[in-house]
Amino acid sequence: MDTTSESGGTYLARQTYHSDAANASTCYHLTLGVFGEGYARLVVCKTLGDVDLAEMMDTDWSGSGLGFNQLWISTLDAGPISSVEASDVKLRVEHDLLFDFAEEDLDIAWWEDLAGGVMYAQVRVL
To answer: 75-103 pLDDT, tens per residue?
Structure first.
């Protein structure tokens, strides 16, 4: 990504960290797997409104052509995630990704350990 361009600079400016707001009741850890080459971890609000997953998915971080292929969402305190909360997270993630990608172009497979406070998604662009 060309971070010197206006769009690159705008994108990076939107990726912020609010450490004063990070607490177990309002935030998740969001961990992105970058095609086996590394991981990125963010602290995000539970609404997931402070991160653009579709934009991050479409960013070539590793030279592989895409941004990430694995996504872990976990509670900050390893506390449980309710089934209602899990359904909401799935809808928010899928809505975000489908904003930039056509449904027939994405394959998202979910695994959950709700008692352990972890959700995992394998994301493939077809």
So the answer is: 988 889 999 999 999 999 999 999 989 99
Quote the pTM value. 0.77
How many C-beta atoms lie closer than 10 Å to residue 16's C-beta?
9
- Answer whether 82's CB lies under 8 Å from 45's CB: no
Q: How many distinct helices (H) and strands (E) make up the chain?
A: 3, 5
Q: Which residue has the tokens 């402070």?
A: 50
State the Cα–Cα distance between residues 25 and 17, nearest whole angstrom: 17
Residue holding tokens 């172009």?
105
* HSE value, Cβ hemisphere, 13 Å, CA-based, for 59: 16
Residue 113: what are its φ and ψ, rounded to 5°? -130, 75
Residue type, 74: S
Residue 115 DSSP class = G
Beta-carbon contacts of 41 under 8 Å, excluding residues fewer than 6 positions away, are 29, 30, 31, 32
Strand partners for 29: 43, 74
103 CB neighbour count, 10 Å cutoff: 10
